[in-house]
Specification:
Blueprint: E1 2-3, H1 8-14, E2 23-32, H2 49-63, E3 67-71, H3 77-83, E4 88-89, E5 103-106, E6 110-117, E7 134-143, E8 146-154, H4 161-181, E9 187-192, H5 206-209, E10 214-215, H6 216-221, E11 246-251, E12 256-265, E13 284-292, E14 297-298, E15 302-303, E16 308-311, E17 322-329, E18 333-340, E19 345-349, E20 354-359, E21 366-376, E22 379-389, E23 394-398, E24 403-408, E25 413-422, E26 426-435
Parallel strand pairs: 2-3, 8-9
Antiparallel strand pairs: 1-6, 2-13, 3-5, 4-5, 6-7, 7-8, 9-11, 10-11, 12-13, 14-26, 15-26, 16-25, 17-18, 17-20, 18-19, 21-22, 21-24, 22-23, 25-26
């Protein structure tokens, strides 16, 4: 697993988004851009690949998709980026045999970007093991306090037995990763799965059964019924009812309702001037609407993406109220905890530091929290926390730094839990809000 370094500047931007909207919409595009060098694979696409890549970037700009996941973005990556104008774009991991070919172009910023290589691959039908294929993960900041976990995927290709075994392993690896790193979160997985529902050995249904994801194609074009008869799409496809190996799967959360509203093969938009295709894959787009919950909301994040992911949102009871706030710290913030009036207690971090606590009155609520971050052993961590209640009482722990932010619960809400990452100390932290 290779993780990009999390910069303090990016963290600051990620938690200082302007408008705190409670609903909205966005669209996504998944496109395998056929970026292997022509000497390795011409993808049966007419024309010069570099020229075609530049056209693809132009069209990304023209159609203003909010988040675009591309696969096979290898040798002609620079040509796409030269003509695209989205403000947020991942750095390439390299050409074929070096990088995964997975990149994301977005109108939204993100945190916690990670590249993960598949544990298994197969060369039975081709050269899948030539390059480190896998998936990427990022926590996309759609709006202030509105985050969705995005995954870009390119699974093993081919239809030989060894290919299907490797591909099933790929999809299971991703499903297990979602279970660990997206607990309690909204999720969108989109990319080239190289799988069809009519290939049962692939076990593509793992995302539905294990992760509770909905396939936008199945939901919006097939009435919720998985295909049982193979239907091959033309390229360009003029219909949306045929199945491709490119998928978009998603789920909402207790904090965020996420709804797919429109599915489309965008093939007719991505053509050369003479009508020829630009890739051997049909690009697919899905429109989403989102709305934050009235019962549970979240703050932005502060700190760095290290340690194990945690999220209290699944365990928070109805009508929660904070009873006791507990912190432990010294040079840095070692642990945080909260006990609700129901008796539920959530504790995160290590066992070091000096413990301190504050018991709230029956009409007193935890309303804001100041966090300060800094570097320790080349990693960003939370060094300090200051909790303030509705009566003005405070509880602090750790050591303040010069890089701080304050999260304040929306009017009529209180802090009742946490999400973030921890180890021996608190690496990354966000807060869960509930109504008073």
């Amino acid at each position: 697993m290779v993780s990009l370094l999390f910069s303090l500047g990016a963290a600051s931007l990620a938690t200082r988004v302007s408008a705190a909207a409670t609903s909205g919409d966005f669209n996504i595009l998944s496109f395998n851009v056929a970026g292997l060098p022509a000497i390795l694979n011409d993808n049966a696409v007419p024309g010069d690949k570099a020229t075609n890549a530049g056209i693809i970037g132009d069209l990304f700009t023209e159609y203003v998709y909010d988040v675009i996941n591309v696969q096979e973005d290898f040798a002609f990556h620079a040509y796409i980026y030269a003509t695209d104008d989205h403000p947020y774009r991942t750095a390439t991991s390299g050409t074929a045999a070096i990088g995964s070919g997975l990149n994301t172009i977005s109108n939204f910023d993100w945190i916690d970007f990670t590249r993960v290589k598949w544990d298994d691959c197969s060369d039975a039908s081709g050269a899948d093991c030539l390059t480190p294929k896998g998936f990427t993960f990022m926590r996309v900041i759609v709006s202030e306090g509105v985050c969705v976990d995005f995954y870009n995927v390119h699974a093993d290709a081919g239809i030989e037995d060894a290919d299907e075994i490797a591909r099933a392993s790929n999809l299971q690896q991703l499903a297990d990763y979602i279970d660990t790193w997206s607990i309690g979160n909204s999720v969108i997985v989109f990319g080239d799965t190289n799988s069809r529902y009519t290939r049962p050995l692939d076990k593509i249904t793992v995302f539905q059964t294990q992760n509770s994801l909905t396939d936008a194609f199945v939901e919006l074009e097939r009435g919720g019924v998985n295909p049982t008869v193979e239907t091959i799409c033309d390229n360009p496809s003029l219909i949306n009812t045929c199945e491709t190996v490119d998928k978009v799967l998603y789920r909402g959360s207790k904090q965020l309702t996420l709804t797919g509203t429109h599915f489309s093969y965008e093939s007719s938009k991505f053509l050369q001037s003479d009508g020829s295709i630009l890739s051997d894959h049909n690009p697919i787009s899905v429109n989403f609407t989102w709305a934050v919950s009235n019962s549970l909301r979240q703050s932005g994040f502060w700190g760095g993406p290290h340690g194990a992911w945690f999220n209290d949102i699944q365990s928070i009871p109805s009508s929660p109220k904070t009873s006791v706030i507990k912190f432990s710290g010294g040079s840095r913030l070692d642990s945080v905890a909260v006990t609700l009036t129901s008796g539920a207690t959530f504790t995160h971090g290590g066992t070091g530091g000096t413990a301190t606590s504050l018991t709230l009155g029956s009409a007193e609520y935890w309303t804001s929290a100041k966090l300060c971050q800094a570097q320790y052993n080349s990693q960003t961590r939370n060094f300090y926390i200051l909790a303030t209640t509705s009566t003005g009482r405070t509880l602090a722990s750790g050591t303040a730094t010069s890089d701080c932010t304050t999260f304040t619960a929306p009017t009529g809400y209180q802090i009742v839990g946490y999400m973030g990452q921890d180890g021996d100390e608190i690496d990354q932290l966000a807060f869960i809000y509930a109504p008073l």
